[in-house]
């Protein structure tokens, strides 16, 4: 492994199906709303089906947001490939692989980074931030996945029966 390489593997289990986790990955717009502390903003630059190119501002440290250009590519039925480039840190590829289990699904996320030379001294800090960031996002996504899927299993339909939003005073 080169001095500029960094690989971080994360594993999570969920009481939902692989398809339900894939649906969560397909929801490109939920990031800045659900993950407010770790994602400052997101803008879809190009979209074709479930594939998209996004500009994402991630909060790396309190008060420090870094912009990433991110290519998001689902590989049905059970993989998602995300490729990101940041001028400050370098390149990052994330491969999310889901496998069914008796209780639901297992998610293996592999973060593979090629760091810019200036980021190499920060390698251990970057590793710790990736682990904390992944754990935080997983907990936020998991609670949403469990609640949403419980409602769908009870017969609720997405977007059906909700009151219409009323515009505020002008």
Structure write-up:
The protein has 170 residues and is of the alpha+beta class. It contains three helices and seven strands. Strands 1-7-6-5-4-3-2 form a seven-stranded antiparallel sheet. A hairpin with a 3-residue loop joins strand 4 and strand 5. The chain starts with a strand and ends in a 17-residue tail after the last helix. The model has no long low-confidence stretch (mean pLDDT 87).
- Output the radius of gyration: 17 Å
On the 0 to 100 scale, the average pLDDT is 87
Main β sheet profile: 7 strands, antiparallel
**Structural class of the secondary structure composition?**
alpha+beta
Give helix % range.
25-40%
Please list the strands of the largest sheet in the order they lie side by side: 1-7-6-5-4-3-2
List the main descriptive attributes of the protein structure presented here:
single chain, alpha+beta, seven-stranded antiparallel β-sheet
Record the SSE blueprint.
Elements: E1 5-14, H1 18-26, H2 31-34, E2 39-48, E3 51-61, E4 64-75, E5 79-86, E6 90-100, E7 105-115, H3 123-153
Antiparallel strand pairs: 1-7, 2-3, 3-4, 4-5, 5-6, 6-7
